[in-house]
Sequence to fold (258 residues):
Amino acid sequence: MAEATQLAYEERGSGPVLLFVHGFPLDRTMWIDQLAGLAKIRRCVAVDLRGHGLSEDPNPGGYSMDLFADDLAATLDELGAEKADVCGLSMGGYVALAFWRRHPDRVRSLVLCCTKAEADSAEGKAGRDALAELVREKGTEALFEALLGKMFRKVPSEDVVARCRRMITSVPPEVATADLEAMRDRPDSVGTLSTISVPALWIAAEEDVIMPLDAARATAGKIPTGSFVEVPVAGHMAPMENPEAVNAALRDFLKDLK
Ligand code: MLT
Fold:
């Protein structure tokens, strides 16, 4: 496995670190409303995973959720933070679960947003390969078109769609395909859920067609220390689509955590 590397990040606020990990194939800017809304209670840090945003990778490939998780640990070292509240959306949630497995002593709490614990099915893996092929042949504009129908609530905000389009079409195609391979090969995390011993919040969105609500509720129920929140009027990109509700859930969850 490649060596862990310190990531580019954007931060706001002071206090205990709240680390935000973006989904596929996005970057730190998906969390700007959380940085603005939570800076009074936390040192909010949104990272760019390797290859994404400002974390340039001259030789992308060989990615895994474990490698991404180790990059988070290297970034916490750089921040001088022993522990963090770790909040990941979707692929970022897979990374957060890997971080819990590999660096449990560095986790104050976990927030798993619009994500799942199961590994890909055989059909899901074939879908990853097909999407990677599409990216290799037609680039990231075609990737955006392929994701467009699933990422947002039924009546999406034009601004949110435009911001996601900018993120997706900015990611190098080799990074997007490396992400897809890493997600295809990620291990099942269902067994990890029962090992979680820090406070955990599962956030699911009413209109998320990628990570449906009922499955999310059942998964969250497997975390002994878990709680569950449903975000209304939002799809898969809930932190961008209904930032007020996501921020309120985070504020409520974090208020008693030292
Ligand atoms: C994401 O938003 O990160 C992706 O939908 C995750 C996935 O495709 O499994």
Summary: Residues 122-138 form the longest helix (17 residues). The two ends are 34 Å apart (CA to CA). The chain has a mean pLDDT of 97. Residues 23-24, 90-91, 183, 210 surround D-malate (CB under 6 Å).
